[in-house]
Specification:
Six copies of one chain form a homohexamer. By secondary structure, chain A is of the alpha/beta class. In chain A, helix 2 (51-64) links the parallel strand 2 and strand 3 (72-76). In chain A, 38% of the residues lie in helices and 12% in strands. Chain A contains seven helices and five strands.
Chain lengths: 177, 177, 177, 177, 177, 177
């Protein structure tokens, strides 16, 4: 059986930079396991979308990109603030994988200490392919949809995701008691 | 049976602005359900008082204001950092309610997505009717008692609440090892 | 200020025996604090009703019995399986109380070890005033409504509580995969 | 877009009866969402396999049965002992679904109370297509592999899953201190 | 540096059989790491004593037996019901160890799957050196103190531990509402 | 039996200032109980080391300083964000103690409210005996080892603790998706 690569992200939202990474990894392993981190969180400025919504984005984006469902698997993984248990948590919730692709220092540190093979992801994404930038544009009513796959933009509008984020960001404009 | 309105706050402490809101809501519905949010927290600079202490403040303040015990119900509600479950949490811990009064963006967003009727609270409170301002004054030994109902001021002094907050704020003054 | 007595129960459901206890305690102290234990649980055979539903039962039953809202306070208290922390949990979620009324061995042991005054409840309730018996009758479609206050029986029918319990008990009758 | 059906189970392990249900549901809706319940548990007599191992079983079994990866999605869902929050938990972790297939009383009750369309699953599985029976046979070293898809039997042997279960069951045979 | 052996137990209470095991392990390794399992529990019939009380029992018993404090280390370890994370939990809370001594099937299974060296403990303890037996005798007011080290018997009497257990066991003797 | 003093810290890492405090306390009481706070955390910039690693540092440092194992006991204590339960948590996980040594405002406030005797620690440590300073130096590849006991410096190098911290701090240097 070909190798499986693990790719962990929060995907808030899934954007064109993430899609590039998925293609990059699929050029190196037979199958990609996409783990949706911080799966329990939603409705915050950092994590506006639920794991289910992010899962839907990924499925639609990969479908749009012509990547076959047999090439990838998506699994939500709740965060643990007890970091030393997190690798065991990921392993227990996923099928076998052989290499971890990540540039995130904590992920790299924990998987390396646990003896996994970890590889860096080259940085070919343009500056604006950043979920933080996209969320900022949504809040400021700036153009954001060109930074995500077309199907993801449609889905976010369908669930009024940009409006949700704008509402959540209203914290400082209303009288707080 | 007349309508019940839900009013959620942290009430750290319960002040004259909160009392105005209670009266405003009782002018619109037959009964008010006061939910003490972040119920599990206490002894921090943001949340100095326990849920039980806040419950006592509310009972005394409403008694002082001549509001009959049959017109309101107070229920402590622990926070959940898994936001998408929080409306279900509130519903499971409270009697039936028909309308939610809130200006807090997260509360408004979550209850609206869950299909509840949500109404904004007009901003008739003076600038200083803010719990943040009151806690700041307690820490700085400035006059704070004019911003809360008299019975609340007495109770806070009785439990030495202002001293507790001042002690908690001492973090930066002592040698940390 | 008169003494407050704490009475902790699960009230699944609140029945005529519980009402007798409330009256007994109100004959001894100025005010009763009714704590709904296991507040987070519902939809099990042991705990069919939510804390909010149980709170509603208590309010209606005490109203029916002519007990003034100013004489009692009801507070939901989540269970902790870390027993040694439970008294601190109860104390932090409630206004001050002076005596604990209980026959439940764990409650008696924990509050006595914490230095509280604990008093036993005399056993004047008839055999069938038992929540276990009432739940059993609901499941078996036997007469149960004579064992609870009339307003509680009406409320349980209103929310189809007996049907819920019967559905939940269906576990062994359906094919399990 | 065609309808999606939700099918929740523990799949300890995934057996031929489960496979029949998957086929039955796929005869009625366009896509099946298979939720692995009690996802956090493993290494007990009731829940010997991790969510990741169960996910692997399902993928292999459905592959063996010729069901295309585009027709199904598997998502691990941790249990919540706070039942009233569980539907919100499932919804937050999954893409949209339109009908819930279940015979399990708690699942049926909770999803019906939340307003979902729930349909029963006909009982065409033979008596022995029961995960309990299979686990019992594994412990007693009886033939169990005919009750699961061939690929699942192979996988369980590969990870020594039957040995694990036998080891776990040894509790009463060893001196306990 | 000499090898360290890990010995995990609940020690409810620590008895002469446990002491024999400690001596046995110290005959094989340079140092013993005694992990108090289920550390968060107390005040139940199965787990009457707090972790702190059990720690005190172990220190006194080993002192009485003339085992030097430098030869052992005691660490409380809370249970996790997510078994697959438990080995990582133990490792994160303890200094390095080289071999695990256990007859408990779950412990043996989990540490072996994680790649640790696990050794069985020979069964030289008499039948009655069982914590279950000791707790039963405490409840029934039978002689139990001959089954534990003298210093442990004294400590349990000092904290009225046998009375606590007898009180906790009273569940079925009192009217339950 | 002589008095026991409780000393609570995070010890990230244990440094020469901590050692001075241990000696100071041992000059006043017969025995010191060293509680490792925030025991569940590790692999963050604030809490890089596990409780087990910190326990090892303390044992080695006290051994190097010639303090006999019989004079001290080290116990890991997980944090609780529900502060009002924390004293009960500490008490349940430790042997009896008679006085708490602390300058940390939250610790002082909580133990004083619970009725414990609390004493301040004089500030004889030099400015740089600060765990924050040491972690900063590790990250910046500056000299840090003179601020900790020699045995602690050796141990941190042995487990590559300074490299771990440097890796964890890399967050802002890598492309984040």
């Amino acid at each position: 059986m070909a190798e499986t690569g693990l790719y962990i992200g929060r995907f808030q939202p899934f954007h064109l930079g993430h899609l590039e990474v998925v293609k990059y990894i699929l050029g190196r392993v037979g199958r990609i396991l996409i783990a949706i981190g911080s799966a329990q969180y939603s409705h915050t400025l950092e994590n506006p979308f639920t794991a289910g919504e992010r899962l839907t984005m990924i499925e639609r984006a990969l479908g749009e990109a012509g990547i076959s469902p047999g090439k990838y698997l998506v699994v939500p993984i709740p965060d643990m603030n007890v970091h030393k248990l997190w690798v065991a948590q990921v392993v227990s919730q996923t099928p076998e994988f052989h290499v971890v692709y990540s540039n995130e220092p904590l992920t790299v540190t924990l998987f390396m200490e646990a003896g996994f093979k970890v590889e860096a992801i080259p940085f070919f994404s343009r500056e604006e392919y950043s979920a933080t930038e996209i969320r900022k544009r949504m809040i400021n009513r700036q153009e954001w949809s060109t930074l995500v796959p077309r199907s993801v933009a449609e889905y976010i509008r369908e669930i009024k995701g940009d409006t949700r984020l704008r509402n959540l960001s209203g914290s400082d404009k209303l009288p707080k008691l």
